[in-house]
Amino acid sequence: MAFTADDRTAITELISMHGHLCDSGELDRLDELFTSDVVYDVSEFGQEPLLGVAACAATGRALGELNPVGHHVTNVVLTEAAEGRVHALSKGIGVNADGTTGSVTYEDTVLRTPQGWRISHRKVRVHHTPLGGRG
């Protein structure tokens, strides 16, 4: 099946919905974004990768007040890979309750499933230095 403009729209909306669900505390709906066996790699935050959608929701609940109040995504770039698979690259901006912010890059593998497009793997890359440290 060809990768269409409708697929691009659906995947971009999927990636965007992450912030809406997290910021509103609707963590029971993360299965609308991720495969049940998602690998959510937050190792750059000093944690082990989260395995499965339930672990992602549980970690969000455990963070409680330490969660950002705003997850914003931008600069979505999609590249078709093997049949039914897309690589997505996007920028994330987190706004904390105290007004501080942080920047990450999301590297996603997105799969076409019977339920629609879902993220099966997400690597969160944290930005600490300008120019990726190559300045």
UniProtKB/TrEMBL annotation:
<dbReference type="InterPro" id="IPR032710">
    <property type="entry name" value="NTF2-like_dom_sf"/>
</dbReference>
<dbReference type="Pfam" id="PF13577">
    <property type="entry name" value="SnoaL_4"/>
</dbReference>
<protein>
    <submittedName>
        <fullName>Nuclear transport factor 2 family protein</fullName>
    </submittedName>
</protein>
<dbReference type="InterPro" id="IPR037401">
    <property type="entry name" value="SnoaL-like"/>
</dbReference>
<feature type="domain" description="SnoaL-like">
    <location>
        <begin position="5"/>
        <end position="123"/>
    </location>
</feature>
